[in-house]
Amino acid sequence: MNTYLGVDVGSVSTNLALIDNEVNVLETLYIRTGGQPIQAVQNGLGELGKRISDDIIVRGVGTTGSARHLAGVIVGADVVKNEITAHAVGSSHFVPDVRTVLEIGGQDSKIIILRYGVVIDFAMNTVCAAGTGSFLDHQAARLGIPIEKFGDMALRSKASVRIAGRCTVFAESDMIHKQQMGHSKEDIIRGLCEALVRNYLNNVAKGKEIQPPIVFQGGVAANKGIRSAFEQTLEAEIIVPPHFDVMGAIGAAILAKEKMFLTSEETDFRGFRAAELEYRASSFECDGCPNRCEVVEIRMEGQVIARWGDRCGKWSNLITEAKDKERVASR
Question: How many angstroms separate the CA atoms of 42 and 5, rounded?
Answer without folding.
Answer: 14
